[in-house]
Every structure is written in C-alpha cells, then in structure tokens.
Amino acid sequence: MGQRFDDVSDHLAAWIAAQPVFFVATAPLDENGSINCSPKGNRDELAVLDARRVAYLDQTGSGVETIAHLRENGRIVLMFCAFDGPPRIVRLHGRGRTVLRDDDEFEEVAAHFPGARAVGVRAVIVVEVERVSDSCGYGVPFMAFETHRPTMDQWSQRKGPDGIRAYWAQKNRRSVDQLDGIDEPRPQPPAIAPTT
Length: 196
Description:
Largest sheet: 8 strands, antiparallel
Number of helices: 4
Number of domains: 1
CATH architecture: Roll
Shape: globular
Helix content: 10-25%
C-alpha cells in the first residue's frame, strides 16, 4: 500500500510532470481559519527543480489563500492522482514560499516554465519538499483527459497587464480570513517607444 521515499526520484518526477492536474492544500495557523485546497492545471506549469524542490506557476485567481498561508506559516502539500493507468496517489509535503512577479528572483525561477510570462501569471510557488509518499489510489476513478481550458488565458489577455495588476490590488490583498496576501502591486514601467 503506502510508501515513503527519500526524495523525488527521476522516475517519480517524470510521473508527476505527466499529470494534467494536481491539487494544492494549505491552512492558516488559526484553528478556526479556512483550510484551502485548489486544483491546478498542468500545462508545463509544474517543474521538479531537484530531488527536494518543486515549483509551479501560480495563475491569477479570485482568492489569494495559498500565498497568504505561505506568508504566515509556509506549510503546503501537493497531491497528484493517476486518473488513467495504474492507480496511484502521490503527496509532497513541505515548506513553500512565494516568488511574486515583481520579486527580483522571479526571472530566475520563471526560466523553468515556458508560459511564465503570460499575462495572468501572478507568482511562482517554490516548495522545499520534506516528505514524499504515495498511496494506492484504488478509490480514484478512471477519467479521460480531453484538453486544458483556454478560459484563464483569454480572461487575462482581455484584462491586459494593467488590468491584472488592478485585479490583484482589488481581490488579492487579503485572504478570506484577512491574512496578508499580495502587497500593493508595483505599477508597470512605461513602455519604451521603439526608435526609428
């Protein structure tokens, strides 16, 4: 049944990267606070950086729970399920940190993702993995993957860079439990007109 592993092996990393969806869960320290679990589509948006570090692109959302919880306490778990092939569930427990789009480190971590410069990308979440485990997955149903939804990209493109930053300022400053989310986003630098 369930096993623990010393780290994320190359074989496990390949399996993780092949999953079209994964789940992220975090929680505040307050026992009455709201636990959060979010599904994430994986369009090359998750990278195993090494045997003890993974990262994923954080797209703009209506909430900011993961970022707020990581700012407060760093606890995070990523879960992957096999919806086809042999049954399997893998969980990566660890400590996460947020590299926001305006942070100096963003370009370095964003280099791992082909879509990191898309308008809707809010941050990269980097996880220092402390526990790697799997379980049977016998209760997970077979489901056929068709394609990723284009809706997030379309919505972000319509808003544009300035509209996305205004959305962060309006919707992503505080969590549902009023924990700090994203500070006031820096304004976009003015575009430089091409020389002729």
